[in-house]
Amino acid sequence: MQAIIFDMDGTLFQTDRILELALDDTFKLLVEMNIWEKEKPTPIDTYRRIMGVPLPVVWENLLPSYSLEVRNAANQIFHEKLINHIKNGNGALYPKVQEALEYLKKRNVDLYIASNGQTPYLRAIVEQYNLTKWITEVFSIDKIESLDKTKLVGEIVKKYSIQHGAVAGDRLSDINAAKGNGLTAIGCRFDFAQEEELAHADLVISSFEELKNILHEKVESN
Fold it and tell me: How far apart are CA 61 and CA 40, in angstroms?
């Protein structure tokens, strides 16, 4: 395998550990700004269901009856809170992520990240966990006008002339991005994954130890 393109949220990074904290922070501030009613709960369950969609779609779902200006302001606040929680050490990578990345890098597998997260947010995670030791480049959806993850992965494939590889992610957008670019789709059965979406993957893992074992078997068989 020449390359693996990883999703970030719910694949490499345990977004669940800071998601509710940051959303609560955001909606408390919206209450103070008289935008959100104090009695209404933070819509965390809605976010969990749609995790993996581009951010404009997130805020269309979380604040459906609000203006674009309010949604953009909420998104800005949310990302500031997310980054603060990352820098304060409240997040975490999934178990064995760093070991798996090191294992792959030593076997000359080129590693990339393709994420629906915004660039400053992704940069905060990369810096917090020193991922540049293993990751060649991080690609954010905010660089693609269409907000289409299949096209984002296509940019990586084109730039680095990837002929054989995989996309590893927890949601259907990752699986579709793999198949749309002729790559293997590795479904990750982690926090936000849904079984009906994973059913479309070429193979499914439940831990990064499994990813190492799969790659080891491929090397041995070759």
Answer: 15
Q: Count Cα neighbours of 71 within 13 Å in the Cβ-side half-sphere.
A: 14
DSSP per position, 39-91: TSPP-HHHHHHHTTS-HHHHHHHHSTTS-HHHHHHHHHHHHHHHHHHHHTT--
| CA dist., res. 80 & res. 219, Å (int) | 42
Alpha-carbon gap, residue 117 to 120, rounded angstroms: 9
pTM: 0.91
| Average pLDDT across the chain, whole number | 92
CATH among 3.90.45.10, 3.40.50.1000, 3.90.1150.10, 2.60.40.1120 for 3-14+92-221:
3.40.50.1000
CA-to-CA distance for 108 and 215, rounded, in angstroms?
A: 12
Question: Where in the chain are the domains?
Answer: 3-14+92-221, 16-87
> Cα–Cα distance between 23 and 72 in angstroms, integer?
14
User: How buried is residue 219: exposed, middle or buried, by Cβ count under 10 Å (0-12/13-18/19+)?
Assistant: exposed
The number of helix segments (H) and strand segments (E) in the chain equals: 10, 6
The pLDDT confidence band at residue 55, using thresholds 50, 70 and 90, is: confident
Tens-digit pLDDT profile for residues 89-100: 999 999 999 999
